[in-house]
Design brief:
The structure holds two protein chains of two kinds.
Chain A lengths: L2 E5 L4 H6 L5 E10 L2 H11 L13 E3 L27 H6 L4 E4 L5 H9 L3 E4 L5 H5 L2 E8 L8 E15 L12
Parallel strand pairs in A: 1-2, 2-3, 3-4, 4-5
Antiparallel strand pairs in A: 2-7, 5-7, 6-7
Chain B lengths: L1 E3 L1 H17 L3 H13 L3 H20 L9 E8 L3 E3 L7 H11 L7 E3 L3 E4 L7 E6 L6 E8 L1 H5 L2 E5 L4 H16 L7 E7 L3 H11 L11 H15 L14 E8 L7 E8 L4 E6 L1
Parallel strand pairs in B: 1-3, 2-6, 9-10
Antiparallel strand pairs in B: 2-7, 4-5, 7-12, 8-11, 9-11
Helix pairs in contact in B: 1-4, 2-3
The chains are: A alpha/beta, B alpha/beta.
Chain lengths: 178, 281
């Protein structure tokens, strides 16, 4: 299978060119955030239309990494179950987030939001966190440091392997008829 | 008389938690390699190849196999002639804190599920239990690092007796179909059948301790495990739930007596990073 090389931040043109099931390699910035961080972000966002922390146009990677090790920013980092963040995703996509990375099936609301806002949900391999950590070059904590592993972090990845989970047409990798 | 003390338990945890977090048990690794080598589905082959390489990287660099380094489960099993020296789990939480800090593992525990979801910062408390074995001389410690995603994909169902064997099969398959994508397949599926509501979940969890490379002794149980494994793999859910030949690496079933009105069933999902060890004390 050929990988599509994608430079981040993901442009809307690139987003629309992707199809569910395609393998991609991502290079550029990602933002890590998960359960408790999403509750904080929604509270902070309130009715504002502008995403804080430079999240506009970016991808959130649902991940809670382990501490730095072996000369890398994290010993291990991998996707957590994305459906736990379904409550927040349509709102964040409507305010300008371009997409998300996680594992597992999303809600119908998230699938519809991917169509409405030309957004993409990528899936990474759950349990491949030592391998994925080799593709992370740098890390900076932006907010919610008190949440420990659940803090908001900006990381830089190189050739980070993912599949297109839900494309901008709403097609889903878990229900492809092949 | 053999005596198990709190220091014995704590020392075992200090030694084995870092190993478990970074070295995939051989039986699981061998099954992953075999699954990769026979996989016919392209995306699943990529996923399985990533998982095999992942285990090799984690082992070589001593980094965690998965970023979710789990909650800690400790089960002490002792025979009739082994003495337990008071609260043998009194030093467990300190040992867990030391092991997670020193090995740079993730702290994933909050103080209270409902009223205080702040992180304990130590990965304590561990979940501890004692089981009594009828076999003289037995003194062993079972340790499991259990990921949150796979545990969330687990369930307990109270079937009626007439649901029978087919009811158990349907329950397991329904759980796999609904939840496998969240549980990081290929799975190791633990199934408990019998006892009572509160016990059956523990049976399913302890079933996950049984190695994949050692055939189950009871021929009835062995045949049922094989039947379930074939049914799970026939779903085609596959590695990473992206479609493929291997949805589960193995199924382990434990059965027990139960009330005439009951047929309790528990499914405890184990992910591809099935991190557990049994230590002879």
């Amino acid at each position: 299978m050929n990988y599509k090389d994608i430079t981040l931040p993901l442009s809307k043109v690139d987003a629309r060119s992707l199809r569910a099931g395609e393998a991609c390699r991502l290079t550029g910035p990602l933002f890590t955030l998960r359960d408790a961080g999403h509750q904080r972000l929604l509270e902070e966002l309130g009715k504002s239309t502008v995403l804080p922390y430079g999240l506009s146009g970016q991808l959130i990677f649902y991940a809670g990494p382990t501490p730095e090790k072996a000369g890398r920013p994290f010993g291990a980092i991998g996707p957590t179950t994305a459906s736990r963040m379904d409550f927040a995703t349509p709102t964040l996509l409507s305010r300008g987030l371009t997409g998300t990375i996680g594992k597992g099936v999303r809600s119908e609301e998230v699938r519809q939001a991917c169509i409405d806002y030309s957004s993409v949900y990528f899936v990474a391999t759950g349990g491949a966190a030592a391998l994925l950590a080799q593709h992370v070059e740098s890390c900076e904590t932006l907010a919610y440091d008190d949440l420990g592993t659940e803090a908001l972090r900006k990381i830089t990845v190189r050739d980070f392997p993912v599949f297109v989970g839900i494309d901008t047409l709403g097609q889903c990798i878990y229900s492809l008829d092949e | 008389m053999k005596v198990v003390s709190s220091n014995t338990v704590a020392d075992a945890l200090l030694l084995y938690i870092p190993r478990l977090a970074t070295i995939l048990p051989h039986d699981v690794f061998d099954e992953l390699v075999a699954a990769r080598d026979r996989e016919t589905h392209e995306r699943a082959r990529i996923v399985l190849d990533q998982l095999v390489k992942n285990a090799q990287i984690a082992d070589a660099d001593r980094v965690p196999i998965c970023q979710d380094t789990g909650s800690v489960w400790v089960c002490l099993e002792v025979g009739p002639d082994v003495a337990i020296n008071g609260n043998v789990f009194s030093k467990v939480d300190d040992a867990v804190g030391d092991a997670y800090r020193n090995a740079k593992l993730r702290k994933s525990m909050v103080h209270d599920a409902l009223f205080d979801r702040t992180n304990t910062e130590t990965n304590a408390p561990a979940f501890c239990e004692i089981h009594f074995s009828p076999t003289p001389g037995v003194a062993r410690l079972h340790i499991m690092l259990k990921g949150g995603g796979s545990d969330n994909a687990s369930r307990v169902v109270m079937l009626t007796p007439n649901a029978g064997k087919q009811g158990v099969i349907d329950t397991v398959l329904q759980c796999v179909k609904e939840k496998a994508a969240n549980a990081c397949p290929p799975l190791v599926v633990g199934v408990g059948v019998g006892s009572t509501f509160d016990k059956v979940g523990g049976m399913a969890k302890r079933a996950l301790m049984r190695p994949l490379n050692k055939p189950t002794e009871d021929p009835q149980v062995r045949a049922f495990e094989q039947e379930l494994l074939e049914a799970i793999n026939a779903t085609g859910i596959g590695a990473g739930a992206l479609g493929g030949d291997t949805t589960a690496l193995g199924v382990r079933v434990a059965t027990a007596p139960c009330h005439i009105a009951a047929l309790p069933v528990a499914v405890n999902m184990g992910c591809s990073a099935m991190r557990r060890v049994t230590v002879e004390l």
